[in-house]
From TrEMBL:
It comes from the Bacteria. Belongs to the UbiX/PAD1 family. One of its GO terms (molecular function) is 4-hydroxy-3-polyprenylbenzoate decarboxylase activity. It comes from Streptomyces avidinii. It catalyses: dimethylallyl phosphate + FMNH2 = prenylated FMNH2 + phosphate. The lineage of its organism: Bacteria, Bacillati, Actinomycetota, Actinomycetes, Kitasatosporales. FMN binds at residues 15-17, 41, 151. The gene is ubiX. Pfam families: Flavoprotein. The keyword NADP does not apply. Dimethylallyl phosphate binds at residues 181, 197. This is Flavin prenyltransferase UbiX. InterPro entries: Flavin_trans-like, Flavoprotein, UbiX-like. Residues 9-201 form the Flavoprotein domain. SUPFAM superfamilies: Homo-oligomeric flavin-containing Cys decarboxylases, HFCD (SSF52507).
Length: 229
C-alpha cells in the first residue's frame, strides 16, 4: 500500500495586526484534514506577542502554536480545543533553503493571513527578502493559488498599485473585511467570516460562517412569544 503524498497549504503570517485571522484559518485547514506548512515572519512575532501575549519561539514552535490556536479572538486562553499538529511543518522566516522555497516542493498553494502592506509590496516587487516573500514568489511563478488577506486601512495609491499587480499576476486579493449579514454576536464571528472567505478562495470546505441564502433578515434570532417591538 503506497503512502499518501503530502501536499500542504503554506500559511504565511506577516506583521500586520490580525493574528486571530491566521489562527482561525489554521484551525479551519486542520479541521478539514489539510496539511500545513507554516511560516511566521519576524515582524509577526511582535504582533502576536502584543495581541495574545504569546512569544513564538523557533525551538518551541509546537507548544506556542498549540497555545495560540487554543485562544479565541478575544484573547481568552483555551477557548478552542488544541488541534493535533502532527501534519504541521514549521519553517523559520530566515530559512531560504526551506522546502517551500523551491518550485519542486509540492504544495497546493499559499495563504498569507494577515498580509501587511510591506509584505504586499515585497511580493508584488518580487523582493524575496525572507522565506514568506520567497514562497509567495514561487507560488506565483508556479501558477499555484495565492490568497493575500491584506489587513490595512486606509490604503494609499502605492499599495493599491501593488495589489493590482498581484491581481494581474493571478493572486486572490482578499481584504480582511468582515460582513454583518451572518448575524455576528461575538468578535469571533467576525474573525471566522474573514477566515472562511480565505478558505473559500482556497476551495477548502468549512462551516465557519452562515452563507447568504437570499433571505432578508435570515440571520436575526426569532423573537420569543410575547416579545415587544
Amino acid at each position: 500500500m503506497t503512502e499518501r503524498k503530502r501536499t500542504p497549504w503554506v500559511v504565511g503570517v506577516s506583521g500586520a495586526s490580525g493574528t486571530p485571522y491566521a489562527a482561525a484559518v489554521l484551525r479551519g485547514l486542520l479541521a478539514a484534514g489539510e496539511s500545513v506548512d507554516l511560516v511566521v515572519s519576524r515582524a509577526s512575532r511582535l504582533t502576536l506577542l502584543d495581541e495574545t501575549g504569546i512569544a513564538f519561539r523557533d525551538a518551541h514552535w509546537r507548544e506556542d502554536l498549540g497555545e495560540w490556536l487554543g485562544r479565541g479572538a478575544d484573547g481568552k486562553p483555551e477557548t478552542f480545543a488544541r488541534p493535533e499538529l502532527d501534519d504541521v511543518r514549521y519553517w523559520g522566516a530566515g530559512d531560504l533553503a526551506a522546502g517551500p522555497s523551491s518550485g519542486s516542493y509540492p504544495v497546493k498553494g499559499m495563504l498569507i493571513v494577515p498580509a501587511s502592506t510591506a509584505c504586499v509590496a515585497g511580493v508584488a516587487l518580487g523582493l524575496s527578502k525572507d522565506l514568506l516573500q520567497r514562497v509567495a514568489s514561487v507560488t506565483l511563478k508556479e501558477r499555484r493559488r495565492l490568497v493575500v488577506a491584506v489587513r490595512e486601512t486606509p490604503l494609499n495609491g502605492q499599495t493599491l498599485r501593488h495589489l493590482v499587480a498581484l491581481d494581474e499576476a493571478g493572486a486572490v486579493v482578499l481584504p480582511a473585511s468582515p460582513a454583518f449579514y451572518t448575524g455576528a454576536t461575538h468578535i469571533q464571528d467576525l474573525v471566522d467570516f474573514v477566515a472562511g472567505r480565505v478558505l473559500d478562495a482556497a476551495d477548502v470546505p468549512h462551516r465557519l460562517y452562515r452563507r447568504w441564502e437570499g433571505e432578508l433578515g435570515g440571520s436575526r434570532p426569532a423573537r420569543g412569544a410575547g416579545g415587544g417591538d
